[in-house]
Amino acid sequence: MHLPGDIRYVLRLIRWQNLLIVILTMVLMRYALVQTLAGGIYVMLDEGQGEAVRMTLRFPWYDFVILVFATVCITAGGYVINDYFDIRTDLINRGEVIIGTRIPRRKAILWHSILNIAGVTAGFYVSARAGYLWFGTIFLLISGLLYFYSASYKRQFLVGNLLVAVLTALVPVLAVLFEWTGLYRYYSVHAGNLPDLKFLFWWAGGFALFAFLTTFIREIIKDIEDFEGDAAYGRNTLPVVTGIPVSKFISVSLIIATIVLLFLAWFLFISDMITLIYLSAAIVLPLVAAVFRLLSGKNRKELHAASGLIKLVMLAGILYSLVVKIIIDCNLL
After folding, report:
1. Bridge partner residues of 52 (DSSP)
2. pLDDT tens readout for residues 210-237
3. How far is it, in rounded angstroms, from Cα 20 to Cα 86?
């Protein structure tokens, strides 16, 4: 299938593959995690016949679609403005740019504005539907932070890396937060004894912490890849400030810390063999491979391979929610 040139370049500009991962993350958080975990809780409804019933999702699916739409729009807008401010460094690091060649700069700003207005508007709407209008400020804040990240923060030592990692970690939290509002609002009124739903946030926090660490690692590796362009334009990235060897050491240390935390979380909170096998094969082994790629990498292509492995690890982390669903639904504990 051949898309028209303009659409093809717009899709490249907004990183459509990454947007699919955002959508997948939110869908799995709702249907594989929250629905499965909440479905294991029985409550007595006031209008019931004295029988306990399973909890079910109470945040309407169409409102969830709007939540995903808002998140995707703001994320896409962030990619557009990032490329807008990175034209000079991308010419050095990648040898080509989309904005200014395939898509005019003015049209790129127009796309950024449309995506952000749509995202923030949808965010406030779905927040009002959830009964917490102030949640809409989260979308407004994220939109502003992504702009200032591209315009300024990414040039500051570690600030940009940490910001991207935090915003990535917010994606699973947002999905669970809005599902929690639906559960809380319904069962606090219709159930005689509202169960404690805090455990949903513990699960969301686990996925968020994993997303934060892997994103932070990948951002540092990408900065090592982009060392030449960043150094040429005076950006204070970690590799420019401390040097590539130190940046590699920090990345490897963070990977090791991630592996340790994974096994620690398994030992303290989960302890089933299926999870152990999945973590070892789908996450830890690729992380170890990324370490070897990173330490041996001497050119951009080899470093990019390490970054790609981290991205696969991030996807494997999201897909663990399906493993949780299978374990619970099939009673494999």
Report:
1. 44
2. 999 999 999 999 999 988 888 887 788 9
3. 23
Exposed e or buried b for every residue in 199-233, given b needs 16+ CB within 10 A?
ebeebbebbbebbbbbbbbbbbbbbbbbbebbeee
DSSP 95-159: S--SBTTTB-HHHHHHHHHHHHHHHHHHHHHHHHHHT-GGGHHHHHHHHHHHHHHHHTGGGSTTH
The tokens describing 76, both together, are: 């896409």
- pLDDT bucket at 48, cuts 50 / 70 / 90: low
Beta bridge partners of 191: 45
What is the pTM for the complete model shown? 0.94
Round to whole Å and give the CA distance between 292 and 296.
Answer: 6
Q: Can you give the residue range of the structural domain that contains 94? A: 5-329
Tokens of 156: 């500051």
Tokens of 321: 């929610």
Alpha-carbon span 208 to 265, nearest angstrom? 13
Q: Report in angstroms the alpha-carbon separations of 179 from 26, 28, 53, 100, 150.
A: 11, 12, 19, 41, 31
Residue 189's pLDDT band (cuts 50, 70, 90)? confident
Distance CA 199, CA 196 (A): 7
Q: Encoding tokens for residue 258? A: 């991630």
Residue 101 structure tokens: 């060649």
Number of domains within the chain:
1
Which amino acid, residue 37?
Answer: L
Long-range contact set of residues 142-148: C-beta below 8 Å, sequence gap at least 24: 142/74, 142/167, 142/170, 143/74, 143/77, 143/78, 143/116, 143/119, 146/74, 146/77, 146/78, 146/81, 146/82, 147/78, 147/81
Instruction: Enter the tokens of residue 312.
Output: 């696969």
